[in-house]
Amino acid sequence: MGLELLEEKYQSYTRQYPENVARLKELTQRVIEIQTDMRKLLDDITPLLCKDCKAPCCQCMPVEGWFTESDYFLYRMRYDAPFDLKVDHGLERGCAFLGETGCVLPGDIRPFPCVKVNCESVSRELERRGRLETFKKLFDALAGVQEEVWPLLEKSYEEWYPGIEKPA
Fold it and tell me: What tens digit of pLDDT does each residue of 119-134 get?
């Protein structure tokens, strides 16, 4: 889903459901804490492994499409819309937020798939350094927050997609 549509949905949602904004801000703060801890585990690993990867995630997938409604709403609780962060790097399928030195999105609240999906090399390195169990606990905590966000957006989904059952 494109950022423009997500922004439109965000604006509509915050007008229609102002009673949920405080709860979304609380959940955003939890995501920030979890993702900050995840970055501490990964920041000295990913630059080493990703630079030599044959299929680096951020260069092989259109990650702008990874911003789900819940990812985007939480991002917007903290930051302005990321339109000005998009990079024209010329990669056909590369992430719109991949800059010369890596991701240009703030490290404390990136889309869930960007922080939850790790390749086998990263997982092995986390394990080698004794960090894998900690990462798994943070992963589970992030998934728990995500499950708390979805019910808040349920009515919004029904309004935007009438007659279409929300995916599980």
Answer: 888 999 999 999 999 9
Specify the pTM. 0.84
Rg over CA atoms, the chain: 17
The pair of structure tokens assigned to 144 is 């728990």
Full DSSP string of 6-73: HHHHHHHHHHH-GGGHHHHHHHHHHHHHHHHHHHHHHTTTHHHHHTT-SS-HHHHS-GGGG--HHHHH
Give pLDDT, residue 118: 73
Q: What residues does each domain of the chain span?
A: 3-155
From first CA to last CA, the distance across the chain in angstroms is 17
Residue 61 has what pLDDT? 66
The mean pLDDT of the chain is 85
Q: Which two tokens stand for residue 154?
A: 């349920």
User: Whole-angstrom Cα distance, residue 126 to residue 12?
Assistant: 41
Distance CA 57, CA 55 (A): 6
